[in-house]
Amino acid sequence: MNIASTRGAKVHYEGAPVPSDLAKPENHPKCAGRVRDIQAAHLANLKENYSDIAYSFVVCPHGSVFEGRGLHKLQAANGNHQLNLNHYSVCAMVGDSGLTRPTDAQLGGIRDAIDLLRAKGGAGAEIKGHRDGFATQCPGDPLETWVNNGAPRPGATPAGISVSLSHVVAAAHTDPGAAQGHTSFPADVRPVEAALVAEGLLDPTFGSDGSFGAHTVDAYAAFQRREGFTGANADGIPGESTLTALGSRHGFTVAA
Ligand SMILES: [Zn+2]
Ligand SMILES: [Zn+2]
Known about the structure:
36% of the residues lie in helices and 15% in strands. By secondary structure, the protein is of the alpha/beta class. Helix 6 packs across helix 8. The longest helix has 17 residues. The site of one zinc ion has 6 residues, from loops.
């Protein structure tokens, strides 16, 4: 059965013993055969009467993504027809014994599968575990915890905005004299502008253009005076101490 879209994806595990040494690099050649074994077991399950492997995708411990039913196909792993319509399914090759914790490569592969489902399969933003809304141990505690933490890609930088001091200083020197709308480092300047608006020092009209123009320089100078600086130390060109103070109040950190 073809489907246009889903709310997102549910994460599963095999729920059976998985060899504890499967994650070793030399064992990757076994992974494709393991996917076919799962498919054969599902096709042999007369009670469920599956038409194919139940999952949309299967991800091995080495990070490879194997296509199950794939994109825009109703999958059959989530517990009942409505649950199957609601979400795609991605199964990680981890078990309830042996290999029970997903590898970082595997978590990255699950994200690859979910990103593909979103980009090409009409999947929405939800990422849940099989046990969310259905009575099961699946996908096991390690994967359920990962899902509940937002399914972060391993090694990704933690949420939070970093502003480069050298970038905003360069922008404060070049943007005011440049043509209207000129930006040099908008990704660094925007959080500073938003903080100055929140401080009541910058007109919101200029608060999100990403240009450290004359209005932003004036607003920053006012912030410097508020912080106790005077004269040339309150010239509207950011320094480390005032930028760090501004960021600590408004949710960004300062890098060189
Ligand atoms: Zn499951
Ligand atoms: Zn593998």
